[in-house]
Amino acid sequence: MNEKHNKKISKFLSLVLRHQPGIINLNLDENGWADVKELQEKCANNNILFTLDELDEVVETNDKKRFIFNEDKTKIRASQGHSIAVDLALKPQQPPEFLYHGTAQNNLDSILEKGIEKRSRQHVHLSSSKDTAEKVGMRHGKPVLLTIMTGKMHADGILFYLSENKVWLTDFVDPQYIKY
Q1: Which SUPFAM superfamilies is this protein grouped with (predicted)?
Q2: Quick one: which of 16, 47, 75, 168 could link to 126 by a disulfide (CB 3.0–4.6 Å)?
Q3: Residue 94 CB neighbours (<10 A)
Q4: With DSSP H G I counted as helix, E B as strand and the rest as coil, what are the percentages for the chain, rounded to 5?
Q5: 126-174: pLDDT as tens digits
């Protein structure tokens, strides 16, 4: 399959599985799972056409591992990054001592004053990789890499979760835990 077609499918899946399932009248269960056949049918009604093999390729080759299938590949969901209420059934995990958050230079003053907020998402996203965090920051302008003292946060009783695609999630990062 061509890369352009994969990207189109991936972007549309991100939209309907993470943010706006209603635009194609897609049903998600409380854990964010969609029936693959229903997804395929409702995408086709919106001129987003793909075979099951093509969908499998999009899931397998997505560089950020944004989507996962259930065991028998009859259901699909986004791994994290939802702006709609879903329960990913994640269990609290002990994070490493430090994680990283990439942002744009123009957000720095606000973050150092108010902390990192989840805003429209369900969680704040943190990375164990400096490179990944920097790439995230580049999407929004001149990148800034922040080191988050997650070991201290955890010791202070703050919960962390690890998504299926290895993104660390938490509800808020207070400025006291941010090193710039």
Answers
A1: ADP-ribosylation
A2: 168
A3: 10
A4: 40, 20, 40
A5: 999 999 999 989 988 999 999 999 999 999 999 999 998 899 999 999 9
Please state, as a whole number, how many other Cβ atoms lie within 10 Å of the Cβ of residue 9: 21
Tokens of 66: 């944004």
For residues 116 and 72, state if they share a domain.
Answer: no
pLDDT in tens, 1-46: 588 989 999 999 999 999 999 999 999 999 999 999 999 999 999 8
Residue type at position 164 = E
Please calculate the CA angle 18-84-16 and round it to the nearest 5 degrees. 30
How far is it, in rounded angstroms, from Cα 96 to Cα 123?
A: 18
Identify whether residues 61 and 108 lie together within a single domain: no
- Tokens 């969680």 locate to 123
110's tokens: 């606000």
